[in-house]
Each structure stands twice: as structure tokens, then as C-alpha cells.
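re the bet — no i am not wrong, look at it urself. input seq straight from the record:
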Amino acid sequence: MVEPSENPELWAFLSALRCGELLSGTVTAIERFGVFVALDDGPAHPVFPGVGFITIPELSWRRIEAVADVVRIGQRVSCEFLQFDTWNGEARLSLRATQPDPFPAFADRTAVGRTLHGQVTKLVPFGAFVQVVDGIEGLVRLRELTRTPVEVPEDAVQVGDAVTVVVTEIDQEQRRLTLSRRQVPPGLP
């Protein structure tokens, strides 16, 4: 824990930040759990390589495999301030909040029942994720992968497979897209 009494300049800086404020800085370290950012107007951190921190989910609206696909050390970034992490004495930041969310536009132009073409991006015990447009993935639950039951998703699809799916649910609030291969009309691939 970073103590306020030992780091008054850091605490004063972080306490003055407001949710939604835009902050600029330089990426100083990439870890498996997120990215450290040295903020332009901020003091040095006594422990970490930057007073700002971006968790993996806050890097992009898209699911990412590697942080290096989004940022690199030395890169300049502008981020939105989310909160003051008083335990670590750091500014929690969001890079994705500065970018348009592709989901609402997709949801506005896509109806339940629509047939889409996509690519399998990830297999999980309960189904498969399919990317239907850049930045938009939906879940095909195990029972919806085929017309006949399968026990594991690998029995129906593999990562990289091109598939045809039907939209069964769009939840804008949760940013969730639910898909089905079982409901694809006969004759379509």
C-alpha cells in the first residue's frame, strides 16, 4: 500500500483528478495485467513505473490477444480518468473510453433473426465466440453450435473456422450478442 503521509505530492495530484478527465502520458511498462503510464502532469510513483494504470479490458473495445497489439512502450496516449486507486496510489485510466464503441451502431443496424457470416475466434467449455464484424463478437452456446448435441465445442468448430450464424439476442446494456448455428436456415453454409 502506498501511504498518503509518505507521498503527499502524489496523493494531492490523484485526489484532484475528476472522473472523465482526459489525461496524457507515455506508456512506460506493459505487464500481463495491464499497462503503466507516466502522466505528463503527474509526479513519479514511488513503486510503479507510472502513476497511471490501464487494465487490459480498458485498452480497447475489441478483445485483444496481446497488449502489444494496442500499445507499445514509449507510445503517447490520451486516456480518460476512471478512479483513484487509493490502495496502489495510482490513477486508473481507460484508453477505450476515448474511442467510439462499435457495439451500439452494430446493434442499431442488426435485427434478431438476421443471418451473418463470421469467424470462430475462441472456444470455451460452454460454446464458441464468433467475430461477425470488426470489433464485434458474439457467443454461440454449446447447444446452439449444431442441430445435434455435442459435448465440447471442438466437436463442432475450430478457431479460425468460417461460420454462418443467426442473431438470437442483442443486449445493448451488457454489450452482448448471442448467436446460433443451429437456427441457420437449411442450405446455408
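see?? The chain has a mean pLDDT of 93. told u. also The chain has two domains: 8-98, 102-180. so pay up
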